[in-house]
# Entry
Amino acid sequence: MFELRKDHALLLAMSFSPEYLIYRGLTVWRWIAHLWLRLFCEVKVISRGVVREDKNLLFISKNLSLAGALALQAELGKPLTVIICARKDEVGRLACLCPALNFILVANRDTVGVVEQIVMERGKGQATCLLRIGLDDAFLEEVVRKSRSTVLPCHALNTSAPDLSLRHEPLACLDWPTAQAIGFGFTVSPEDFTGAGFRQAWGELNAELAETHSSFQGHLGRACVAGLKRRQYKTIMTDSYQGGRSLSAGMLLAVAWELSLWLKATTKAKRIGIVLPPGLGVTILNLACVLANKTPVNLNFTLGRAGNESAIRTAELTVIITAEQLVKKLEDFPWTKDRIDLVTVLKSFPKPQLLWRRVLVFFQSAESLMEAMGIPEHGGEAEGGLLFTSGSSGDPKGVVLSHKNILANVAQIDAILTPSLVGSLMGCLPIFHSFGFTATLWWPLISGPQVVTYISPLEVGKIVEAIEKYKVELLITTPTFLRGYLRKAKTEQLESLNLVVTGAEKLPPPLREEFESKFGVPVCEGYGMTETTPVIGVNVPEQGMPYFCGEPLLGKKDGTIGQPCPAVAIKVCHLETGEEIASNQSGLLWFKGPNVFGGYLKDPVKTAAVLVDGWYMSGDVGHVDGQGFLHIEGRLSRFSKIAGEMVPHGTVEQYLYEIVKATTEDEVMIVVMGVADEQKGEALIALTTQILERDEMRKAFAARGLPNLWMPKHFVHVEQVPLLASGKLDLKNCQKLVEVAAAKNL
# Structure
């Protein structure tokens, strides 16, 4: 583990030298920490710029753990004063050591106090680092300007443990690292410094450090074994469709182990097709595939025959595992020649053999189990799963998610949704949906909450009963399905919920307000896509957020999708020129991080169109505000250029919802689409499930001061707006409807 090199020996000798201690000004505590970091911790330094001596230099980081701050001190080779806007009771268990460790608390957000402290420490000739946590753009810009500081973004990340949380209090005593990544950005003059620019630069730095994370280079199967072994006595999953049948973590691992051996003995296929709804069966099978070092390919059986034929051909599937009950319902599904019934296979396993597996899980260590199962030590960039896009705006594409992608996104979800907030989760999203695949399958298996499953998100009434019966605390759904809960659920049935997270489409504010008013449960909008495994960000209620200067750290902001996950970098590009612009300006959103996929299966052309130097072009338009919250204004494909102006369909929909909500209590769905128009380039047409008069809508638009260009040219009444099985809008079929309406000159 440790090889004594010449520089180590020299440092060791110097560390015992009184002159060295006096010269460096290190306390005994910092000396011990530095010695540990130098001798027993693998430190990797990433410098995007040149760290130069500058008397006005100010290091700024979003947040640092105790080990991270000490690692920065050790790397700089001189004492580093860390300034935090917080009180002693807000910064962790080591606050009493703040003076000895050169940590200074400024218990207010007064810029004068912070500036004075920076100038004072600078006068002592010491390096100074300001933690941004709890500070907005305006505060940061004022501090830099008044202190005349040249800013250098920096960060230190423990890369030996999968904890990415930046919501821990600073100085928290977490696991001491055996590997640490330290990064420095580019220096910025006080005249050029902006809060938005810092946030963007620090985000890129954090994403680069996370790419070196050793935990993310591991194997998904190993992470599952470790997680299930650690909680082997706890009920990990309950299948509400099967009358509440449940499995402990230890038993689930034992059954999956036996099934993995059967897979190895039965087929040499690298990829295994899976056609199953949410439940015990699909969970066991996905885990078994990974334990057998095979790739699970959860097929979207709602795509239709042509879509699935394409998926099966692209993935080169020769084996599909399903259930005979489902085969009878999917009469037109293009099954492979080798089709296997999972129920029959599981029933063929002798009970004594399963019991023996459970005994081995009980007695053997997690490491011994991994060796016995033959799980490779590293997964990294290798295939961990293969999903196909929903086809909501085009043909489905094969998205290869690596072990690193899945492990990173699970760690990112962990960093956002803490155990104190989420103890149990409703798993009703299909596993072929990226959120169902990561958040309701792998997250509970590795480190997340207990999951209660139901076979379909469409049966809202049954899901409500399950939530009430099993006291579920987190519901993940879409705005479309949320309307169903609003209609069918009684207040007392959802009282166990701590949080509802919506995604897949824009959350209309009136819907959020009505749900929160009726049930008293916060509804938080999230955001992601299959290519990012999928979570990019999500709002989080104040519950469980740390306090700074007596105020809770802001985690939820209505109208946004929350702050980006740790290790997710964002850049914004101009819609027409493609040039990078400030993140607080609206433009095309690009994302980078360890959760970003590596490319589409067998499609280098489409891959090259969306991936450039590790950055993923999302196709969405948005910006980041001064508090770090991400605003999504709509997909680029859902903008219409009308008379030279870019008009967002989603924003128009939002205004229409507000207008309709003010005149009726009836449930309504509205979708705005664009069609070609000879006079203005494009025109808007609205599909609505309620008859709306254009003249009345025009008057309401004018009363709100909305632009005439935003007014839909036609309102088309439909019985039902086309939806995909995941609850997302079926944009292809919506477009067909409006084009037919336009052709009729309605």
